[in-house]
Amino acid sequence: MMKTNYLTAVALGLLAALCGCQAEDDTSRTPQGNIPIGFLSDVPGTRATKEYGSAADLTDMGVFAYFTNGTFNQGSSTPNFMYNQKVERQADGSWTYAPVKYWPGNTTDRLTFFAYAPYVDEAATGGSNPSFQGRTAAGFPKLTYTVPAAEADQIDLLAATPLMNRTAPTTGSEKVTFSLKHALSKVNIGIKSEVGITVTALSVNKVPATATLTFTNSGFTWGAIRVRKPSPPPLPMER
């Protein structure tokens, strides 16, 4: 009888160990690879009137990275690997950030990257513009942007084509390269008169004041647009 109980206990112990191993294998773990993650950025041809006409005009960008054991899942994946990570362009054209992170060591692990520019610090006094959903929000990143009232504070906003479900490269010289495109660009309005009319003021009505940019598998979309009310006062024009 004692022998039977002993064998039963051993069998239950082995079963528990096997179950524990299976549960651990199904859980995403922190990557432990040895290849550092590096970044590059490019800005395709644009009609921007003032800022960010090329990659050389960029000084920093914000990066969100999702670590998944398998492919990105819109319903459950979160920015658990990088959340609004500041990446800065150096004088020699390289991009750096700290602390440096490394590619996953497991073949089934994936990293999905999203980026925008210029970088904003959400911890800044008064909040950030754009603002973000938070570290625990699942799904594609969302950036909510409000057009500043002061013209001097109105800057271009760029967003990159997402890099989905990337695996570790073979060497550290291979970089994560973002293609940043204008999501918002400042518009300059000029008026030319051929009949001697002098324009002293100009107003634009029903201008969107706040909107939310949502990344997708292949780009981004705008939604949740709110129009500024009341309309802004006329802008003085140079004579």
Automatic annotation (TrEMBL):
Keyword Signal: yes
Membrane-spanning residues: none
Signal peptide start and end residues: 1-23
Keywords: Signal
Keyword Signal appears in the UniProt entry: yes
Superkingdom of origin: Bacteria
Gene3D superfamilies: Fimbrillin-like
Name this protein carries in UniProt: Fimbrillin family protein
Protein's organism: Bacteroides stercorirosoris
Lineage: Bacteria, Pseudomonadati, Bacteroidota, Bacteroidia, Bacteroidales
